[in-house]
Amino acid sequence: MNTIGLIFDLDGVIVDTAKFHFLAWKKIAREIGFKLTEEHNEKLKGVSRVDSLHRILDWAGVSVSDEKFNEMAHLKNIDYLTYVDKMNAADILPGVETFICQAKAKGYPIALGSASKNASKILKHVGIYDLFDVLVDGNSVSKAKPDPEVFIRAAQKLALPVENCVVFEDAEAGIQAANTAHMLSIGLGDKYILRNAKYVFPNFTEITLEFIEQQATKK
Prior knowledge:
The chain is of the alpha/beta class. It is built from nine helices and six strands, in the order βαααααβαβαβαββα.
């Protein structure tokens, strides 16, 4: 087994489920008279369902009972899953499956580190569940990003020290979590939003395994 571990976020890195979250959260926000924008949505990427709802309620200046809060979170997830159930291999983002397959062929251990509680379901829908050696998601951690728990737990499951791990993230909170965990952070997306990442690429078609190997061994 290679001594460098590769940890992938799910939403926005492997599949573009961020758009589904946005549609579902917009529906919830409308019900409390709040217009959720793309700018707001950037702040929800990589954040747990509970924390996302707390943020939306804070932005809206609205307070709800615990019962109503749980109902809103549940309804959001039901709406989100209607989109997830229609996913297939075509929803995998460009270049990422090829990159993971190349890494596995060279013996790199592969982990998922995601806030999503639907990670297993999504990976099975798109047909790449078996590519992952380790799965750490919102069902197995208690602290949401930017807390580094999800990535630290993934490193532990890979039986690797944190400094030997590389994290691929599309969210500001995820980059912060990776940096806090002392892992090499690779951003996927906007260079300004992900400016705290060690390196940023638009997508996996621009990343080579050789580049990651070179940077990982410099640490």
